[in-house]
Design a protein that fits this description.
The complex is a heterodimer. Chain A is an alpha/beta fold. Chain A has helices spanning 2-45, 66-75, 90-101, 115-121, 131-135, 137-142, 145-153, 180-186, 194-206, 230-233, 261-275, 288-296, 310-321, 360-374, 376-384, 415-418, 422-430, 438-450, 472-475, 478-488, 496-524, and strands spanning 49-52, 79-80, 108-109, 164-169, 175-179, 218-220, 240-241, 244-245, 247-250, 253-256, 300-305, 327-329, 342-343, 347-354, 391-394, 397-400, 419-420, 455-456. In chain A, the strands form six sheets. In chain A, strands 2-1-3-14-4-17 form a six-stranded mixed β-sheet, sandwiched between helices. By secondary structure, chain B is mainly α. The chains are: A alpha/beta, B mainly alpha.
Chain lengths: 525, 297
């Protein structure tokens, strides 16, 4: 009896699997055909431009709302944006894909994780090459020509066309900072060599630089996955962006910086620092809140972050401990035999892409938006947003109100972040040089400029994500994290590094390197 | 613990006692481990800005303040989402129970011939789920995009719960129903007046399952609701918890005594509270019902 029942069940299951696969086959065919029809229908009716971009919890922009009117007044085009959760890009991408599948792509959106590659190949995105110089001259001028060239080189169809408005940072944003007041307390000079640097770390650990009588100081450290440790990686000339190894020229060829001799030497040195207690023993457990918490508690001596934001740390340290710290940029230090620097990441992926359409009027509206986006005269306006919601007038000048996602609409156009220049940053910071904040904010202004002396770009800057997209473990640097953290903490000896390099090349590294070098050769032409 | 004090009829050996002790200890340990994150979140929500920035809070609030809660209640715009969640959960559970009972009852009767085949379809949905994109397109074409009913309709019938109810009905003594029938009861009256009053346990269990699903639902609203005015509580909470990146705007000094961390802690605790409050009331049915329904499932 039982056996027969089981047989029946099995055949039923098999049959259902077949039905299922047939159904899903039909489903996907269907969705493609609706895509085509709906898209054209949508384009001819819609007056407003729907733009999707990063939103960390702020209110959506609906037609007729305050921010909508704000953009319409300035640009002459209505901009709407539904609430799309960002969640590190993950949820955003999922929702974007659903909308694309439904044939209802937003008119303009921030591409994420290489989503644009396939869309370009399918002709779903608008070719901007000829439109930009003609209809969005401000944006065309705001982005340097060599960056446009790099964008063209990244065209997945190989036609050297522009589909993506890149995110550009024309200055070195990240760098290492040091508690200058600690140096002064101990009568030490700013370190300039690696030897001096280590001496300073030792002094920070042992000589109670914060003067509270407790050995609570953490000379330096970083966050989990060996992130935000550029103060150490930089000394060995390693191209490293916020914990992500980058591609640069090593031994005359474009190479992943994690598998170089530079990295090997650096990790060996770092494991020594770790063993001596000069690195935060909890480094690889620190999330952002934990590591920032330590800096804000006034117990960290040297760390990597954004010098332009160091006033936040300064004020938090002051609020928490009563000490007004002096934070300075740590000059880039060179390890023996290497040239040290802080990594400057000029090309930061895509800012916007535009959905393909034949509707001339719509294209004109979109180009108007893009032109305004690139118009530096409007940036301050965009920055300050709606008066009363995003900003307030103090002494005749607009000043941004503290961030409040519950009452503020999401600023859709943030060119000052996506085509970032140091001048703009200094300008905004200068607006906060009020009596009570000047001591902290002036440090940020000074540091962001000082940092430029020590930053250097790298050869692999602007490499498209599609090069590693077939190898998620390489893109997520899984293997690197495991070996790097274990070597630093002493769980692995440095000899294991060679095993890592071998494994990395064996699990896709060879292919990725080949692709990357191909890309670089093309870019260099 | 009662067993030890009351002197149970079977004498416990020393081994049993040690065993009981160890088990209790392990369970207490688990209970503590489960409670710690919640306590710590509650502590963060009641702490000051400085303490949060310095990451000093463990299990007790540091720099005690209600500012995060005040902000959440007065300015956080959580009440509409709260009402949406409460109403969709209450309405959803009511509809779900109605449909499940009406479907499970006939399926539990052997004289209902097609029952076997219908059950096959039901089980089918347990094994295979629609891929995301076709599912999205289908529900969207039903008009369930940016629609309140997407919070309810996709959840009112799950195979697992239906089977629990059906199994429970199967075990219901036939003699009772037959006696009622002899006394002149119709089929609906038997269901309403004889079967259901004796099925509170299973209804509470299944109701709780549905209720928790609907209260906690996040994926459906995320896929189908982009209009913030229709956000259920969990989606609203996400907007508060979804912290920013490294790059921050230069703004005037923040004077309020909260940070995004304390706010999100308050929001999280707020979202858990209703379930925490409701659970003890249903728990006695829950433990019993889950066992009852699933023995033969």
């Amino acid at each position: 009896m039982k056996k027969r029942y089981a047989k029946k069940l099995m055949s039923a299951t098999l049959a259902s699997v077949m039905v299922m696969s047939m159904l899903s086959g039909c489903g996907s065919a269907d969705s493609k055909s609706t895509e085509a029809t709906e898209q054209t229908a949508e384009a001819s009716t819609d007056e407003d431009i729907e733009i999707w971009s990063t939103n960390n919890g702020y209110l959506p922009v609906e037609a007729g709302s305050e921010l909508y009117n704000f953009y319409k007044d300035i640009i002459g085009v209505g901009i709407v944006q539904p609430y799309v959760e960002w969640n590190g890009g993950e949820t955003y991408l999922e929702q974007l894909n659903l909308r694309i599948a439904a044939g209802d792509m937003p008119d303009m959106f921030t591409p994420w994780n290489g989503v644009e590659t396939e869309l370009i190949a399918n002709g779903a995105l608008l070719d901007l090459t000829d439109l930009l110089p003609e209809k969005a001259p401000h944006l065309w001028e705001s982005i340097p020509e060599d960056v446009w060239d790099a964008v063209k080189a990244n065209d997945p169809t190989g036609q050297n066309r522009i589909y993506v408005i890149p995110q550009v940072m024309s200055y070195g944003r990240n760098g290492a900072m040091i508690r200058k007041d600690w140096l002064d307390n101990l009568g030490l000079d700013m370190p300039t060599t690696q030897e001096e640097f280590v001496e300073v770390l030792r002094a920070f650990k042992n000589d109670d630089p914060n003067g509270n009588g407790v050995a609570d100081e953490i000379p330096t450290g970083g966050r989990a996955e060996a992130r935000w440790m550029g103060q150490l990686f930089g000394q060995y000339g390693i191209a490293m962006w916020e914990g992500y190894p980058q591609w640069d020229i090593y031994d005359g060829e474009l190479t992943y910086s994690a598998v170089t001799k530079n990295m090997r030497d650096c990790l060996e040195w770092m494991s020594g620092l770790y063993a001596e207690g000069l690195l935060d023993p909890e480094t690889f457990l620190n999330d952002k809140a934990a590591w920032d918490g330590k800096i804000n508690s006034g117990v960290v001596g040297i760390w990597e972050h954004l010098p332009q934001e160091c006033y936040n740390y300064a004020e938090n340290i002051y609020n928490g401990t009563g000490v007004k710290p002096e934070i300075a940029v740590l000059p880039a230090i060179s390890a023996p035999g290497y040239e040290g620097y802080y990594t400057m990441h000029q090309m930061n992926g895509g800012g916007f892409v535009v959905a393909n359409t034949d509707d001339e009027a719509k294209i004109d509206r979109i180009m108007k938006v893009l032109d305004a986006y690139g118009n530096q005269d409007l940036w301050m306006k965009f920055y300050n947003g709606v008066e009363g919601m995003h900003s307030e007038v103090v002494n005749g000048e607009s000043v941004r109100l503290p961030d409040d996602p519950s009452t503020q609409q999401n600023l859709v156009l943030v060119p000052f972040n996506q085509i970032a220049t140091i001048d703009f940053q200094v300008n905004v910071l200068s607006s906060q040089l009020t009596d009570d904040r000047a001591w902290a904010v002036s440090q940020a202004i000074e540091n962001v400029q000082e940092n430029q002396k020590y930053v250097k770009s790298f050869a692999g800057d602007g490499m498209p994500e599609s090069i590693t997209s077939d190898y998620p473990d390489i893109a997520n640097r899984t293997l690197y994290i495991e070996y790097a953290t274990k070597i630093i903490t002493g769980e692995y000896s440095i000899d294991k590094f060679d095993e890592f390099v071998e494994k990395w090349y064996a699990t896709g590294g060879t292919e990725v390197t080949e692709k990357a070098r191909e890309w670089y050769a093309k870019k260099a032409q | 613990m009662k067993a030890y004090t009351k002197k149970s009829h079977v004498r416990e050996s020393a081994n049993d006692k040690i065993f009981g002790f160890v088990i209790s200890l392990i369970l207490i340990l688990f209970a503590v481990i489960t409670a710690i994150p919640l306590i710590s979140e509650a502590a963060v929500s009641l702490s000051s800005k400085t303490a949060s920035q310095m990451n000093q809070i463990n299990l007790l609030p540091v720099g005690f303040t209600f500012d995060s809660w005040k902000y959440l209640f007065m300015k956080g715009k959580i009440w509409t989402p709260f009402l949406i969640s409460v109403s969709s959960t209450v309405l959803g559970v009511a509809i779900a129970l109605l449909l499940n009972v009406l479907m499970a009852y006939p399926l539990s009767k052997t004289e209902f011939r097609p029952s076997k085949y219908i059950m096959l379809f039901v089980v089918f949905t347990m094994v295979f789920a629609a891929p995301k994109v076709p599912y999205f397109l289908t529900l969207r074409s039903y008009g369930l995009y940016n629609n309140y009913w997407v919070l309810i309709l996709p959840h009112i019938m799950t195979a697992y719960n239906l089977i629990i109810v059906r199994t429970f009905f199967k075990q219901f003594p036939r003699e009772l129903e037959e006696a009622a029938m002899i006394d002149g009861c119709g089929k609906f009256r038997i269901l309403l007046q004889i079967v259901l009053p004796a099925s509170k346990a299973v209804l509470a269990t299944v109701g709780l399952f549905y209720g928790v699903t609907m209260w906690n639902q996040y994926e459906h609203p995320m896929m189908f609701i982009q209009n913030m005015n229709l956000f259920p509580l969990q989606m609203k909470i996400r907007t508060i918890v979804d912290g920013g990146g490294e790059l921050q705007a230069v703004t005037m000094a923040q004077t309020a005594n909260y940070t995004s961390a304390t706010l999100s802690a308050a929001a999280v605790v707020f979202a858990i509270l209703p379930v925490l409050v409701a659970y003890p009331w249903i728990q006695k049915y829950f433990a019993k019902g889950a066992m009852l329904g699933s023995v033969k499932g």
